[in-house]
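Renewal narrative, Specific Aim 1. Our central claim is that a sequence can be written position by position from structural information alone. The example that follows is taken directly from our test logs and has not been curated for this report. It begins with the structure tokens describing the chain, in the order in which they were read.
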């Protein structure tokens, strides 16, 4: 399922953040409005985790930092065939089970199939 990412824009200085912070990272303001982020982002950097905690059965787990028009989001990638600068789009879904609870969130998949 394709997802839309919502960012939080500081009403004082205009800085957009994701995820939401208690206080603006720029001016420490506390007033935000929700804004829709770009549908696609660019991969800035990534890391592969080979040593996974017990109970997670999908090595390697790839985590990336994706830039959505200036807003940086950290998330799990759906592929390990990655390179910096590639376009990714967010998909919403089940990430893992944690203590019997299902955790949902965004993962990032390649926007263009090569
Ligand atoms: Zn601010």
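The sequence written for that structure reads:
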């Amino acid at each position: 399922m394709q997802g839309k990412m919502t960012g939080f824009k500081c009403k004082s200085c205009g800085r957009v953040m994701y995820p939401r912070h208690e206080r603006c990272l720029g001016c420490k303001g506390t007033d935000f409005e929700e804004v829709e982020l770009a549908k696609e982002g660019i991969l800035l950097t990534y890391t592969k985790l080979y040593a996974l905690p017990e109970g997670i059965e999908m090595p390697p787990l790839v985590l990336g930092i994706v830039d959505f028009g200036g807003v940086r989001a950290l998330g799990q990638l759906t592929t390990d065939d990655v390179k910096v600068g590639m376009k990714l789009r967010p998909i919403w879904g089940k990430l893992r089970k944690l203590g019997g609870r299902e955790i949902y969130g965004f993962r990032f998949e390649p926007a263009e199939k090569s």
